[in-house]
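Input:
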Amino acid sequence: MLAVVCLSAAFIAGCAGGRSGKATGAPQPVLSLQNTGSDTLVNLALAWAERYMTLRPQVRISVTGGGSGTGIASLINGTIQIANASREMSAEEIAQARKNGIEPVRFTVALDAIAVVENPHNPVNGLTLGQIASMYVGAVTRWSAIGGEDRPVVLLSRESNSGTYVYFLEQVLRGGDAKGTALFSPETLLMPSSEGISAEIRQNPNAIGYDGLGYVTADQKMIAVARTADGPYVLPSARTVLDKSYPISRPLYMYTAGQPTGLVREYLDWVRTDGQELVTPLGFVPLAGSGQ
Amino acid sequence: MSNPSTVKTRASGPTRLRRRTRVSEFALETLIRVLGFSTIGFVLLIFLFLLREGLPAFFQVSPAALFSTHWYPTYGFFGTLPLILGSLLVTLLAIVIALPLGVATAVFVREVAPQWTREILKPVIEVLAGVPSVVLGFFGMTFVAPLVREVLGAPTGLTAFSGALILAYMALPTIITVAEDALDSVPRSLRDAGLAMGATRWQTIWRVVVPGARSGILTAVMLGMGRAIGETMAVMMVTGNAAVMPTSLVSLFRPIRTMTATIAAEMGEVARGSTHYHMLFGIGIILFILTFLINLAAASAIFQKKRKGGLR
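Output:
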C-alpha cells in the first residue's frame, strides 16, 4: 500500500511539474499565429496557412473554425491574432473589444457568393430575390406557387449565429433594408453544418437551401437568381460576382487586434496579394484588382 | 462513501501495526476521502456555475416572453416553450416506442430464451449501448430520414419521429438491462405459485412475473427517459431543429427543436455575457430541473420497491 501511495504521489508531482514547466515555457524558436473563426472561411484559411508555412518554414499558423462569432469572441478576449469572419463585427462586439483595449481592424480577404440550391430533380431553374424571400418568411409554402411542381417547400438554413444566416436574412429576407423586421419562418430547418444542408438537398426534392458557393457540391442544383422578375437570371460564379450581376455576394474578412505588425502584417499582405491564387480553386472569388 | 468506512475498519484492526503501515493507511484513507468529497464538490460547483450563468436570464427576460412561442435568439425573441415541448415530445415518443420493445426483450432474455441464446444476447445488448451517438445521428440523417419521408409522405424526413426512433434505440439497452434485473429479482416462489395454480408459462409471465417487477420496470423507463432527454448530437442531426410549436398529432411527423440541440448549436458562437448567453444556461437549468424530476421519480420507485419488501 505504501508503494501505491508513493507511486500516486510521484504521479501527481510529475503532473504538476510537467504543467508548470509548460507554463513558464522555453523560448520558442518558431513564429506562431492563431487564426480562428468563420466556418465559411476555414478551408480557404487552411489552404493559405499551409502554403505560407511551406514558403516560410519557421512560421506556425494554426487554423480552426467554429463560426464568425467564435473567432470574434476570441479576438476580443485576446487569445488569437487573426479572426476570420463572414460578416462585419457588430457595434456591440466592437464596443466590447474596445473595453478590453483592443481596436479591431478589418481586412477584406476574398469575396463569396451565396448560392441558393435545390434537389437536381426540381424543375425550377430561376427565382427572383422577392420569390426567395417570400418562401423563407413562410408566405409561399408550395413550389407550385412559384411555377414548380405541386410539392411542399422545406426551408433549410444554417444555424442562427452563422454569418451566412445573418447575411441572408439582411440581404434577401429584408431586401437590404436595415429597418426591416422580417424573420425566417419558424418552420425553417436550422442545420448544424454545410454537410447537413447538402445531405438533405441531395435526397429531398422538396428542399431549398443556401450556402457559400465553395460548399456547393455537384449533386446539388444551383438556382439562377434575378433582382427583379424582368431578369436577368444569373448563376453564381467568380465572373458574375466580380461584375456584380449576381445579387447575393459578400466580402469575407480577417480581423486583427489593432493595426497589425510583424508576422501578422506580412501574412495578411501575402494573403491579399500572392495568396489570392488559392481562392478560385476553393470556390471563392478573389479580390478585384489582385490581378487574377 | 462505503470506501472510507471499510478502510477505517481495517486500520483500527490489530494494535501491533508497525508505525509505517499506520501512516500509509492514514494517507490512503485521507486520499480516498478527499477524492470522494471532491466528486460531490465538483457536482456542486457545476450546479453553482449553472445557476450563476443562467439565473440572470430569468431577470432579463420577462416570464411572459420566456414562455412565448418564438425562439429567435439573435433578434431578441427568447420563447422557450417550443424547445421544452420539442424535448418532451421526442422523449415521450421515444419511450412509447422503446418501452414495449425493451420489456418484451427483457422478458425474452430472462424468461424464455435458452441459456446459450441468453449468453449471446446479453453482451450484444451491452454493445448496443456503446455505439457513439454521432454515428447514430449520421445513420439517422442518411438512412432513417429519407425512409421516413418516403414511407410517411412527410415534407422532410428530419422529424420528431425520426429523432424518437434514434432515441428509442439509444434508450433500449438501459431499459432492457434494468428491466431484466427487475424480472430476475421476482422471487421464485411467486413463479412456482403461479404454475401450481394451473397457469400456463405465458400466463405466469404476464400476470405474475411482469407485474411483480413493475416498480423495477418503471425505474428502467425513468432511466431510459433520462438518457433520451439529455441526448444532443443525434437529435441535432435528425430532428431538423425548427423551433415550431408542436400543436397536433401531425407535429410528430414535422421538424422540432430540442433544448439540448439549441444549447449545443448556439453556445459555440454566442457573445459571452449577452442575454442570449445567459438564456442558453437558463435552458440548461430548465433541462437540469426536468432531468432531476425524472431521476427523483426513478429513485422514489426504487425506494418504494425496497420498502414493500415482499415483492421486492
